[in-house]
Design goal:
GMP Synthetase, Chain A, domain 3, Rossmann fold, 18 helices, single chain, about 550 residues, alpha/beta, four-stranded mixed sheet
């Protein structure tokens, strides 16, 4: 079999046959053999039930081992997977099922209860992900095959199921693998068409550069329906023979602490918000103590203390991981400065759904703090600027990872990918002489100052988020002035017995302190406290367009 995306999946199953593959935390566990058997059963069901290669199969639920199995079965069959974020509202889920022309839906029960099948008339079959029960079906052939699926399997594979029974039709580079609908940070979601070459290229880069070994463990924190979680918390570890644990609950610091203490993962893939919460709540307050601040200034003691602090953070994540790979958004400046100072094993990458998702990354030993690494293999990065090292411009990317386009949306595709094949990311940045990429913000978010200066709200927010009792913030323009919308850390304020009036005073002081750190043209005129958390995409980015 030629080296292709499905070659890696097939090879991993055969090589790691008896190893643990996918587990629900405190739930069912599946070996690579178990996964292969389920895939084989699904393939017989699809075949007998009239599902063809190229047909769309949608998946929508919280993270589950069964989600991973159904997804791998879909791709290994040659059908097109349509992962749908379970956080989407029912009308959006209805739209995606209809828009993608999905014939079959694997769904979590909590999602299914809110859906109305009359809004998806072309959807033939619905299977519950928790136990693979048939919830809805209008396809007689499929119903017959479903009830005979175990019999069909035993007929085809009498006796023991062996690795030699596993064979998947090789994929072609430009064959469509997935339609992944974007999470809509700035606009409504679009269907990103990802061919197998993109899936293969992302996987090969991870296998070549991330260096994890068969049998090692990973906790899946990010939603599988988002490309970042899917690529690096399911596809890569599965193809590498690792053991993935899925947690279906929202990954609060408390839950993460419990799961990591028990599983003790070797690799952690996360978004900044998760890391920042743990560092800001558990570590930075300790450093405010006078004697620690003093000791850190003494070279030898400072070095020993830094080692001690680093060990404490590592223990908070289970004690034996080799790397935390952070992506999805920029890491807070103060938190990153601290992690860099204690030589913590972290790296920050950059990507987007349209690249399936990797654009840039670097090994933590050579990673430059503040950057998001260098272009990954088979990808080019260019800054659309007269001086890419010092003048901010739009980040353009080109290469094997880039999507085919947006499904049934040629206008959006033409806007995103130019005639030379460059994908216009909409992000702004600079690139240094060594090829390290530094992101400055989104082009759609730029605010023009009164004297024509470009103001990047993300840079102001990054400073503001490091100030006392600020959980998250958003800087917007209102009536020609900059206004900071702030969602305070109410939990910490309550713990510290800070009254509502005192919190307002602290926020006003924060605004003054913030203005002392930034140029005159980007001064914040007013700070408005938000009572509720900002509405977010599943990768925990604030949906800015709702507040502008």
């Amino acid at each position: 079999m030629k080296e292709s995306f499905l070659y890696y999946i097939e090879h991993s199953i055969k090589t790691h046959w008896t190893h643990q593959a996918l587990s629900d935390y405190k739930g069912a566990s599946h070996t690579y053999r178990d996964v292969a058997r389920q895939i084989a059963e699904f393939h017989l069901l699809f075949q007998q039930g009239g599902i063809r290669r190229g047909d769309r199969i949608a998946l929508c639920s919280r993270n589950l081992a069964n989600w991973g199995i159904a997804f791998l079965a879909t791709l290994a069959y040659g059908a097109v997977a349509v992962p749908i974020l379970h956080e989407f509202k029912p009308d959006n889920i209805h739209h995606i099922i209809t828009h993608s022309k999905a014939r079959l839906l694997f769904v979590g029960m909590s999602v299914w209860e809110d859906l109305d099948k009359t809004h998806t008339p072309d959807l033939e079959t619905v299977i519950q992900l928790e136990n693979y029960a048939l919830l809805h079906n209008t396809n007689d052939r499929f119903a017959t095959a479903y009830h005979r699926r175990h019999e069909l399997f035993n007929q085809k594979y009498p006796g023991t199921f062996h690795p030699s029974n596993v064979h998947y039709e090789p994929d072609e580079p430009d064959q469509l693998a997935m339609i992944n609908y974007t999470s809509g940070t700035t606009t409504a979601s679009k269907g990103v068409m990802l061919p197998y070459r993109s899936m293969w290229s992302n996987l090969k880069y991870a296998l070549d550069k991330m260096g994890y070994n068969p049998g090692e463990r990973l906790v899946s924190i990010l939603t599988m329906a988002h490309m970042y979680g899917l690529a690096f918390e399911l596809i890569y570890p599965f193809a590498g023979g690792m053991h993935v644990y899925f947690i279906s609950k929202t990954p609060s610091p408390k839950i993460i602490n419990e799961v990591f203490s028990e599983v003790r993962p070797h690799l952690i893939v996360a978004v900044p918000l998760i890391i920042e919460k743990i560092i800001k709540h558990r570590v930075l307050p300790q450093l405010e103590k006078f004697h620690i601040k003093l000791f850190l200034k003494i070279p030898y003691i400072g070095r020993r203390l830094r080692h001690s602090i680093r060990d404490k953070i590592i223990n908070a994540f289970g004690g034996r991981f080799k790397l935390i790979a952070i992506g999805g958004a920029a890491l807070n400046f103060e938190v990153e400065k601290f992690l860099s100072a204690v030589k913590f094993p972290y790296t920050v990458g950059y990507g987007m759904t349209e690249c399936g998702p990797a654009i840039s990354y670097d090994d933590w030993h050579t990673f430059k703090a503040g950057s998001c690494g260098k272009a990954v293999d088979r990808m080019e990065v260019m800054i659309n600027s007269s001086d890419p090292e010092s003048i901010v411009g739009e980040i353009l990317v080109r290469g094997t990872n880039v999507m085919e386009g947006y499904y049934q949306n040629p206008e959006a595709t033409a806007t995103a990918i130019d005639s030379d094949g460059w994908l216009h990311t909409g992000d702004l940045g600079i690139i240094d002489k060594d090829g390290y990429l530094y992101i400055k913000g989104r082009s759609k978010n730029i605010i023009l100052g009164s004297s024509g200066q470009n103001i990047y709200p993300e840079e102001i927010e990054d400073r503001l988020n490091a100030l006392p009792y600020v959980s998250e913030s958003l800087v917007v323009e209102r009536d020609g002035k900059l206004v900071a919308l702030v969602y305070p850390d109410y939990e910490q304020a309550k713990k510290d017995k800070v009254s509502t009036e005192s919190l307002k005073k602290i926020m006003d002081d924060n605004r003054k302190l913030l203005n002392s750190m930034i140029p005159m043209y980007s001064q914040v005129a007013r700070l408005k406290v938000q009572e509720h958390e900002f509405e977010k995409t599943p990768k925990r980015s604030i949906k800015r367009y709702l507040y502008q």
